[in-house]
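Entry, Tuesday afternoon. Goal for today is a structural model of the target with shikimate-3-phosphate bound, before we commit to ordering more compound. Inputs were pasted exactly as handed over by J.K., no edits. I checked the ligand SMILES twice against the vendor sheet because last time a stereocentre got dropped in transcription.
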Amino acid sequence: MRQRLRRHIVLVGMMGAGKTVLGSELARRLHVPFTDTDTEIETAAAMTIAEIFARDGEAFFRDREAQVIARILRDTPRVISTGGGAWMQDRNRAAIRAAGLSVWLACDLETLWHRVRQRSTRPLLKTADPKGTLARLLAERDPTYALADLTFPARPGDSVDAAAARLLDAIHAADPQLANETP
Ligand SMILES: Nc1ncnc2c1ncn2[C@@H]1O[C@H](COP(=O)(O)OP(=O)(O)O)[C@@H](O)[C@H]1O
Ligand SMILES: O=C(O)C1=C[C@@H](OP(=O)(O)O)[C@@H](O)[C@H](O)C1
Ligand SMILES: [Mg+2]
């Protein structure tokens, strides 16, 4: 059955928390559109996130990210996966609060590290000590992520499928009216 959301569901949290993979799975289960802000930025720029960081710098990327988020929030309510730094900007938090339910995918350092260590797609982790960088960002950001409407703690060992089912239940419990079936 098709569903219509009353407002957006916006996933926030650290790199590797599962925003992209769980957001896509959540949208599939709800039969609603899915948008990942990083993918939108990459498509618009015809460059990867790493290329944008390398050529234009992080400040440029953050401006693009804020523009893209504002644009997506004006579209039909959907599941939106943000990049890990998006929720750190006041302007993004205000825009997301006004138009959606924010959900923090809270995750411990070891789980995050296990998930991101194989990949070279995240420019912020291209440092001499990527695990140390991840730990520092986690400590800096967690208090701000905690401002999200809903906290969804990762369960180490959960499959993507199990986590998506649990996430859907948590969202329904937080806002039973969020998703309505439409003919
Ligand atoms: N329980 C789980 N929840 C979320 N992701 C998981 C889980 N178990 C394994 N993963 C893997 O962790 C990675 C999360 O990456 P991604 O969705 O890109 O995170 P983010 O967008 O938050 O940076 C994916 O490769 C996914 O398959
Ligand atoms: O945490 C961050 O600042 C970033 C997270 C990335 O997205 P994911 O959280 O989806 O990996 C991407 O937006 C960029 O590399 C910066
Ligand atoms: Mg992502």
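The radius of gyration is 16 Å.
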